Amino acid sequence: MKSLLLAGLIATAPAMALELDTDEKKLAYALGAIVGERIYQDFGEVDYDALVEGVKSAANPEERLLSREEVGQVLQQAQQALQERAQLEQQAAGEATRVAGEAFLKANAGKEGVTVTDSGLQIRFIEKGEGGAMPTASDRVEVHYHGTLIDGTVFDSSVDRGETVTFPVNGVIPGWVEGLQLMSEGDKAEFVIPQALAYGPGGAGSIPPFSTLVFEVELVKVNP
After folding, report:
1. Is 191 one of the catalytic residues?
2. Choosing from 104, 191, 199, 210, which is the catalytic residue?
3. What average pLDDT does range 177-200 have in this prediction?
4. Among the residues of the chain, which ranges form H helices?
């Protein structure tokens, strides 16, 4: 009876914490931590008992439960599943960004002073100049601008950099090409550009796919 009770106590006793009391244990733990971080990042939680057995099998190839060929197939299938999941998440994020942009455009269109062009570009003049030259698509322009996402996140700003930018009118996104040709030297305007007139499904840098963009643009000079 005493032995059964003792066996029960041993079976239910918590596992002793691992002591890293040798350099070999520290190295093994460090290697496990590095591998574990990568596994958790890519796959989340896994069966750690099976993982440990897989690690051990490297030293005992004859005891492997999966051949090298089978290991390759399993990893390939897992990688494909990860890619498909990432694509679905990207599509969902893009759709959410597109829908939010359309709602923003609808609300903004009703604001005072906003003009909506046939293409869907929204422009509102903040300041009017003295009626200087208006650019054509073949001109170069010098501008100051401040670009944000609809949530106010700044992704590019010559204003923040403290220097104007010069470029050809027809060398930028369609919303800018159209908006600039509605301005005169000295004007300052807000462009709200639908994703189809901006970077569309591809996005650009820190600009997510399907993003509606907001720019404050000052047309400093037109260079024919």
Report:
1. no
2. 199
3. 98
4. 2-12, 23-43, 48-57, 68-109, 158-161, 174-180
DSSP sequence for 63-126: G-SS-HHHHHHHHHHHHHHHHHHHHHHHHHHHHHHHHHHHHHHHHHHTSTT-EE-TTS-EEEEE
Catalytic, out of 104, 191, 210, 215: 215
For residue 204, the SS3 value is strand
Query: Is 104 among the residues known to form the active site?
Result: no
Q: Which residues contact 124 (CB under 8 A, 6 or more apart)?
A: 111, 113, 114, 115, 189, 190, 192
The question of whether 155 is a catalytic residue gets the answer: yes
Contact 138, 163 (CB under 8 A): no
pLDDT at 44: 85
Active site (annotated) includes residue 199 = yes
Based on C-alpha coordinates, what's the Rg of the chain? 30
State yes or no: is 210 an active-site residue. no
The predicted model scores a pTM of 0.74
| Averaged pLDDT, 19-30 | 92
34 in catalytic set: no
Given 156, 191, 193, 210, the catalytic residue: 156
